[in-house]
Amino acid sequence: GKPPNVYSFPSVSELAPTLRQYVLAQQNAAIERHSTFRVAVSGGSLPKTLAQALLPKGDGSAADKVDFGKWEIFFADERCVPLTHEDSNYKLLKEELLDKINTEELGEPKVFPIDEKYLDDAQEMADQYEKQLVAVFAARDSVKLPGFDLLLLGCGPDGHTCSLFPEHPLLRETAAWCLSISDSPKPPSKRITLSLPVVLHGAKIAFVATGAGKKDIFKKIFETEEGRALPCGLVNEGAGDKVSWFTDNAALEGVSVP
Ligand code: 6PG
Predict the structure, then answer these.
(1) Whose CA is nearest to atom 14 of ligand 1?
(2) Three-state DSSP class for residue 110
(3) Cα 37 from Cα 48, distance rounded (Å)
(4) Rounded to a whole number, what is the distance in angstroms from the first to the last CA of the chain?
(5) Cα–ligand 1 centroid distance for 29 (angstroms)
(6) Which residue's CA lies nearest to atom 12 of ligand 1?
(7) In principle, which of 53, 91, 115, 196 could form an S-S bond with 16, CB 3.0–4.6 Å?
């Protein structure tokens, strides 16, 4: 297949305008297709970078408007903790981005957090989250897999993405849309995550990963067989040019990219 797109910048603040343009291009295409923009987001450093890209005032043109009122935001992965807990990806996104949106001007996104009723049972939590996805997506798409317009993901230093970890049996799941994990190597241990087929089925997939701490994993993913078998590598290989990497020069130092 075609290689992924790799965009690299001297710094995160220089990356932000290009990430904005990219997200807006996907937003405008999605709204054109079906009047909504269905996005999945991860935690980690992503919400902060996303805020840098999306919160600045636009140039006033329609194409440069972040039309938050049309956004439906899901969690690519979430920790099984209360929504007010320090470890919650929802809380992180809310504080970094959602609370700072000028909703009067841009509208309010519809956000789909996990249901706190199921915190004690990660599998039940995953099943319930999947039910929400089915309710939203099955009305529009084939019921086989949900069609996210854009997945915004991170890449961990071990090559994990969402909460799909290297060599974990969850990687082999083909039927379920949403999975639970109780032995996550990155704490907290109980989480839910979208499955690999759901990620690969997205219209576009963006990895946002910056800093010198990513150098070693980038080298692996882009240059080695072993790296191609890691979760990030599987998405990178499996989705071809549907994938875009937003990164910085520190992360790519010495890495040969396609
Ligand atoms: C989580 C995150 C996780 C994250 C990666 C990369 O809940 O732990 O969703 O999948 O995206 O670990 O994190 P950084 O962007 O902070 O490196």
Answers:
(1) 44
(2) strand
(3) 20
(4) 12
(5) 27
(6) 156
(7) 53
Q: Record the tokens describing residue 74, joined without a space.
A: 């899901």
Residues having CB closer than 6 A to ligand 1 are 42-46, 77, 79, 89, 154, 156, 162-163, 186
Q: How many CB atoms lie within 10 A of CB 181?
A: 23
Contact present, 29 and 69 (Cβ < 8 Å): no
Half-sphere exposure of 67 (CA within 13 A, CB side): 18
pTM of the predicted model as reported, rounded to 2 decimal places: 0.97
Question: Two tokens at 108?
Answer: 């309010």
- CA-proximal residue: ligand 1, atom 4 (nearest): 44
Which residues are bridge partners to 18 per DSSP?
A: none
Q: In what order do the strands lie in the sheet with 150-153?
A: 5-9, 243-248, 205-208, 150-153, 37-41, 71-75, 110-112
Instruction: Tell me what ipTM this predicted complex has.
Output: 0.96
The string of pLDDT tens digits covering residues 173-186 is: 999 999 999 999 99
